[in-house]
Amino acid sequence: MRFQFLTKNKMKILSLFDWMACWYEALVRAWIKIDKYYASEIDKYAIQIALKNHPDIIEIWDVKNVRGGEYLGIDLLIWGSPCQWFSAAWKKLNFDDPRSKLFFEYVRILKECQPRYFLLENVIMKKEWQDIISSALWVQPIEINSSLVSAQNRKRLYRTNIPCFSLPKDRGIRLKDILDHEESDLISYVDGELRIKQATEKWYLVAEEWDGIDLSYPTSKTRRGRVIKWKSNTLTANWELYVCDKIIRKLTVKERERLQTLREWYTEWVSENQRCKMIWNWWTVDIIAHIFSFIK
Q1: Which domains does the chain have, with CATH numbers?
Q2: Which end of the chain is more exposed for a tag (fewer CB within 10 A), N or C?
Q3: 66 within 8 A of 106, measured Cβ to Cβ
């Protein structure tokens, strides 16, 4: 009966740490009708992109000032707070970092507004931190790799009470499927073989056509996984390279959008640096849309 109700009626959405409203994009792709979309966000560039694409969004600003009781009975509460500080790529400050402590603002609002459904996304983290989040939400995470729907190797944890959802089918998308053929100013090709230094028996791996390359830590002597076969590495603000026609080059902004399964030019309203920041900080839209599709 509940699913029949949601299918016929529009939903009220509360999005915390909304960033650039890609949750909205995912809802549309899942054929979910939106009545009201409340967005808590403080980044001015993210808000600019969100409102350019979805002008009906109601911005409610800082999450610390949100009172969940004002949104009692909301249909869907979604959240993706700053979580790099749980990641192995950062300092592993976990809940000691004030930005990661914002998780407890979500818990507070979740209890106050009592949504019909909720969805939380996080990076892969140490089990002790996972357990803190799981115990607070009474739900275990499900790991999904964006590589199932995209040419990006991006593992994330999803916690939700949306029932019975399964992993998306592997679409078999490779890096070459989303790339444009453009010239590069980063060329490195020696003796007919492109060798990427890393901690293997040979101390290198050979990068071949349509492989991704991760040079985020160029001085590391113990780094592994610098060559990603047929995929891009998880997007960051700095290095995402690939090999094409014996050339190494950075990914374009448009290609980054494709890796996150965004609409092309979704982020065009701000500078290129801000666009890259917006894209790598968000989530893969088609993964979220797949989860939302089970609401019906």
Answers
A1: 2-170+283-295 (3.40.50.150)
A2: N
A3: no
